[in-house]
Write a structure and sequence with these properties.
This protein is an alpha/beta fold. It has a single domain (3-173), classed as Spore Coat Polysaccharide Biosynthesis Protein SpsA, Chain A, CATH 3.90.550.10. The chain has six helices and seven strands. It has helices spanning 31-41, 55-62, 80-91, 111-121, 147-153, 161-166, and strands at 3-8, 46-51, 68-72, 98-103, 127-132, 135-143, 170-173. It has a seven-stranded mixed β-sheet with strand order 3-2-1-4-6-5-7, with helices on both faces. Strand 5 (127-132) and strand 6 form a beta hairpin. The longest helix is centred in the middle third of the chain and has 12 residues, at 80-91. The chain is globular. The N and C termini lie far apart (39 Å). The relative contact order is 0.20.
Amino acid sequence: MTACGIVLAAGAGSRYGQPKVFARAADGVLWLEQVVVALREGGCSEVLVVIGAEAERAVSIVSTLGAVSAVVATDWELGLSASVRAGLAGAANTDADSAVIAPVDVPGMPASVVARVLRAGAGGEGLARAIYDERPGHPVAIGRDHWELVAASVHGDSGANRYLATHAAVAVECADLWDGSDIDTR
């Protein structure tokens, strides 16, 4: 079984003040790099980064990360759903049977969380999401059998939450590994 990591990094980051694909930690490391490393070390053999806002500049950032591919969500302004659709379409061009999806604004996400969620949701029929003290969070693992259905179910600025809930995704408690926090503002 193989997994493809998908980093959602297409938005303009209006609450943050810039696209989060360019955001850096206090030590200067790109958030994007931190999430890519967590996905790779957590079991993803391939990583795709979905970009949109300031795409030309974002491609140059993605190209510095080595074996990572950029996928452009040309309709990124429609919201998170556009990024999810673009990422899953990109994953469909790989040999992966699972996709692990995480937004770029979770730079603290450890590889151990990715590995745990991937174990629970591996395979073409798999469906799992991290939870933190029973609160839904990231990442999510979606088996290939669900990709088209998830892509068809997302709209506007909503991701796969409804699909995961109505299709009994395995809830994977990860609060012992991380707090699940994302960063919305500076």
